[in-house]
Amino acid sequence: MAYQTNPFLERMSERMTSDLEFVRLFSPKILEKLSNETFDGGVHIFRSAPGAGKTTLLRAFTPPSLRGFWASRKSPELVESFQKLVKLGVLKEQSQNEFLGVLLSCASGYADLPPGANIQNEGLFRALFDCRTVLKTLRSLGTLLGCTNPEDFEKIEIEYDFNATNFKNIPSFNEARELIDWAEKTERKVYAQLDAFSDNGSESMPVHVQFESVVWLREARFFVNQKEIALKRLLMVDDLHKLRKAQRSLLIEELTEQRSTLPVWLAERSIVLGDTLLSQGAREGRDVHEHRLEDLWSTSKNSAQFIGFAQSILDRRMVAQDLVPTKSFSQCLRQELDLSEISSKIEKGISLFQDKVKNIENRVRYSEWLERAKEISMESSLESLFELYITRILLARDQQNQQLSFDMALPADEIEDRGSSAARGAAAIFMHEELKIPYYFGLERLCVMASANIEELLTLAAALFTGMQNKLVLRNPDPILTPLEQEKLLKEAAKRKRDFIPRNHTEGKRAQKLIDSIGLYCRQMTFLPNAPVAPGVTGIRLSSSELKKLESPISGNLNEHTVLKRVLSECAAENLLIVRESSASTSREHGSIFYLNRTLCAHFNLPLQLGGWKDVSVQELAEWMETGYVPRRQHRLRTN
Amino acid sequence: MHDQNAAQILAKVMGWQNLESPPAYLPKLQLLADYKYDHYQRFGPGRRFIENLALWLDQFDADDRPGALKLVTERLIFFSESEFSHLVSTAYPDLIIKECLRLVAEENNIKTYLIGKISSQQRFKELQLKSLYLGLSDGARTNELRRASSGDITNEQIWQAYELSKEKAEDMLENLQKSLKNQGLKTQRPRFNLVWLLDDFSGSGNTYIRYDREKSAFKGKIKKIYERLHRGDLVDPSHYEVFLLLYTATRQAIDHIEYWSERFTSENGYKPLQLRVICPIEPEVSLKNESDSKIKDFLSKKKYYDEKATDKHIAIGGSDDARMGFADCALPVVLAHNCPNNSIYLLWGPESYEPFGLFPRVSRHREF
Predict the structure, then answer these.
(1) B27 contacts in A (CB within 8 Å)?
(2) B64 three-class SS
(3) Considering CB atoms only, which of A2, A471, A488 is closest to B3?
(4) Vertex B21, ends B16 and A319: CA angle to 5°?
(5) Residue A361 pLDDT more than 50?
(6) Quick one: average pLDDT of A155-160?
(7) What is the pLDDT of residues B200-220, one digit of tens each?
(8) 3-state SS, one letter per residue, for B251-276
(9) A591: distance to nearest CA of chain B, Å?
(10) Most CB atoms within 10 A, among A506, B17, B78, B95?
(11) Helix (H) / strand (E) containing B134
């Protein structure tokens, strides 16, 4: 076949991916982030923007995947996955029938149930959930045991503790086959109710008064040939955001109240939180544990771990393809700049520095600094260019802060004292802006651009992979991408992400305008000559009093602020804006910072470090959302 | 050829140096190659589209290759086998049945939207049985049409050629009588009422009807068919309709056929020919008035033509040579089973010619 799909565009969460393929591509490093308490009882909610890896994580614990991991336990590429699962107590060396993961999806059927929070409709919802849970449990058991025919289920026997026989709706059958028939019949009754034109309140309509299936799953004991199996269980419910609001609340509330010793994992997209996403206060309660997948990688230590995780994912996909003859993704990305490729830019940078300092070269205060710079300029290297840019920034800062004093020369070594890694970061982005020296390249920056989202990582990697393929088409001996080539491909991918915004939001055009405005504003703040917020500004902050205006808008701004709130929430839910809490200090109240997604930072030529932000008002954001951001100088021209 | 090798050859021929060029063309070309171009039935053994494209481009000067590639990526219209089959499958339900309904509605003064009432008329069933289907060439796909009718068209009503021998005609009439009898319909001297002439493509319409000014006579298949029909054995000369159903045709062909068939039938006192085209090809598609300068320059180069392609059959179309195709249609059209000679020479030029076409054609006529 001439046309072959890019291996980085395939989504493992899709059911179309075979279990074998899934096991091969699954990176076990995410398992290290799961604490043991996630396998204890109680409700655990996994929440994230689309593409962070929720469904993939859940799928790893289903019987087909676990069988796959167990079967490949001796394989060198997959032994790591197996060992991590053993460590979590999910698999054992000798047996694969100890753990039963039951995965349900809320994607179909539930939202079709009649709306309205009344006893009948709630009962119908519970009934559908219960019969599907029972059915999925028994079918998962069948998969665990390798059952291929309906007759194979006859070997599964079910026993109950005497307490469990008090189920009002789920029958206490001892034969799995009978229970499957009951579940299928109940599901058909629910569908029949959906198809009915009128609500006839028939007695045969299944109405459950509580979610019995969770209790059933906890209490039932499964035997095959008198040997108990599936001693450990896990119930996973995916796509909770597809439920109606009332259904979702009911499910979470009642499962939490049950305080089951069975661990229940619920997965949903952040969009379901709506406006409450903007306030980042801790939501974790005593019985509900919330896990935000992006936050798993948010600290600097975890960011380094994310790189390892990402590399593992990328390499597995490289191994699975044969279009590009290499097994390591990062090997195809040149990690460093080649002097021969940027020598003319370095020369230009040195010349630019000399132009910039012409008006202060006679100042005694800066004589030592400039002398140092002159010596550095003799060596035409990237490191010397860095030093010159850091010097420029420090000069600008000093000129701005100057007090009346004796014009004494600043010692040269003060540059090293004042120059920090932040200043170096600012120098790098300044060099990129002015001289077009590549900045967005290398595995580490690729992982940062992914903003802790696997789908974003794969989208960016897909763009790079296409570049590698095209290198082979052009008969290059190896598919290694230069920094310049990487940057070009990544920026094109970033542009596509920005251009796609209107198609993915209810207020698409406004969201795009707001993101563009934040980007332009951050650029203006970043590229001030003195780099006041080094390495750069990549976010805006709303203080708590500004956030209150969003919560309770005054009558004149009601519509505007309501729309802004919705736009901000959707952007946060889709990971276009990364929301972080900003704690109070002596000079400011607490608030929420909205950082631009790191890929979008590349689109706006901003640095990738998470750190710099500026306070803005709700009114400003509302204006930006409607009319776009106008840089200050132009704004003055307009008002005059 | 291995896909990667084919792509490399194309890159070499086009002189691509940077990473921007391959993704601008390759993904689209590879997708289209996989979807349809690779399935062109006249490629030589071991040849597929991408490598053929590279070899085709290699014949031209380096400056002309971008224009040639642009012609392929932005102007080419390729009818794949499955797309054509789809057209054929829609012919019976969307066209043929509709005509039957219309005729019955007219005869019985029923509103055309009362489908149930019309189709329940006995006349409707009678018309279905008394419909004769004749293929005008091997591209008529009579077998596919018959199957698409879900049993409404039987073997006894359809024939893959328009020249019917006396024996074949008698056979068909005998079967018609039996069918009518089975349905309880009048059977005294049964003859067909509707004649459907089927064909796949027409570029100029000349094959069906044309006027030979030298001999002052009409020529073409339609003339032959009408003369055959008016012998009186197959159809009732006082009560018949003739339809020409083309799965695809150019607007030029449609205008030509409508004009000349109207002249022909009116001069001879025949019932008018009714032309039906499922997928018309509009004049904008023709490369005659190409606006893009690169493509225009490329097409204007007279050196990219083999004079052997100019023969007596081309002269019938009224043009001096076949550079712009038969009758100067200048089409960028390719059919999966064979490229029509109404398309530009650079698309259909035979493999043995210089330059050869991108989709080399097999001629219908013997060439010496």
Answers:
(1) 3
(2) coil
(3) A2
(4) 100
(5) yes
(6) 89
(7) 999 999 999 999 888 899 999
(8) HHHHHHHHHHHHHHHHHHCCCCEEEE
(9) 44
(10) B78
(11) strand B131-135
- Least CA distance to B5: which residue of chain A? A473
How far the first Cα of chain B sits from its last, in Å, is: 33
**A3·B19 Cβ contact <8 A:** no
How far apart are alpha carbons A140 and A143 in whole angstroms?
A: 5
Mean pLDDT of chain B: 91
Verify cis geometry, omega within 30 degrees of 0, for the bond prior to A535.
yes
DSSP string across B271-334: PPEEEEEEEEE-GGGSSTT---HHHHHHHH-TTS--GGG--HHHHHTT-S-STT-GGG--B-EE
> Which residue of chain A has the CA closest to B37?
A2
A467 vs B contacts (CB less than 8 Å): 19
Mean pLDDT of B309-322: 84
pLDDT, greater one: A296 or B113:
B113
For chains A and B, CB pairs below 8 A equal 51
Inter-chain touch A2–B4, beta carbons under 8 Å: no
Would the ipTM clear 0.85, i.e. be above it?
no
Beta carbons of B33 and A4 less than 8 Å apart: no
Characterize the bridge pairing of strands A156-159 and A221-224.
antiparallel
B235 DSSP 8-state letter? B
CB atoms within 10 A of CB A547: 19
Place of tokens 């040579």: B321
Q: Which of residues 11-70 of B touch A (CB under 8 A)?
A: 11-12, 16-19, 22-23, 26-27, 30-31, 33-35, 38, 48-50
Decide if B332 contacts B75 (C-beta within 8 A): yes
Whether A4 and A323 have beta carbons less than 8 Å apart is answered as yes
Residue A259: band (very low, low, confident or very high) from pLDDT cuts 50, 70, 90: confident
CA-to-CA separations, A388 to A157, A369, A371, A383, in angstroms, rounded: 77, 10, 11, 9
- pLDDT for A197: 59
Tens-place pLDDT, residues B39-67: 999 888 888 999 999 999 999 999 999 99
Q: B12 and A467 in contact by Cβ < 8 A?
A: no
What per-residue confidence (pLDDT) applies to A635? 40
Of A230, A72, A81, A21, residue with least CA distance to A144: A230
**Confidence check: pLDDT of A639 > 60:** no
pLDDT of residue A124: 87
The set of residues, in sequence order, having a beta carbon less than 8 Å from that of A547 and lying 6+ positions away, is: A278, A279, A591, A592, A618
Burial A49-78 (b: 16+ CB within 10 A, else e): bbbbbbbbbbbbbbbbbbbbbbebbeeeeb
Q: Which of residues 92-131 of B touch A (CB under 8 A)?
A: none
pLDDT at A637 over 50: no
What residues of chain A, 452 to 471, have a C-beta less than 8 Å from chain B?
A: 466-467, 469-471
Taking the C-alpha atoms of residue B33 and residue B56, their distance in angstroms, rounded to an integer, is 15
Instruction: Answer yes or no: are the C-beta atoms of B302 and B309 closer than 8 Å.
Output: no
Closest residue by Cα to residue A230 from A46, A92, A44, A78: A92
pLDDT in tens, B217-257: 999 999 999 999 988 888 888 889 999 999 999 999 999 99
Q: Which residue from B16, B18, B34 is facing A2, i.e. has the nearest CB?
A: B34
User: How much of chain A exceeds pLDDT 90, in percent?
Assistant: 45
Chain A, 284 to 343: residues with Cβ < 8 Å from chain B are: 323
| pLDDT value at residue A407 | 67
Chain centroid to CA A176: how far? 40
Q: Is B219 on the interface with A (CB under 8 A)?
A: no
Tokens standing for residue A538: 């990549």
* Closest approach of A504 to chain B, Cα-based (Å): 25
Nearest to A2 among B18, B23, B30 (CB): B30
> With contacts defined as CB-CB under 8 Å, which chain A residues touch B38?
2
Determine what percent of chain A is predicted with pLDDT higher than 70.
90
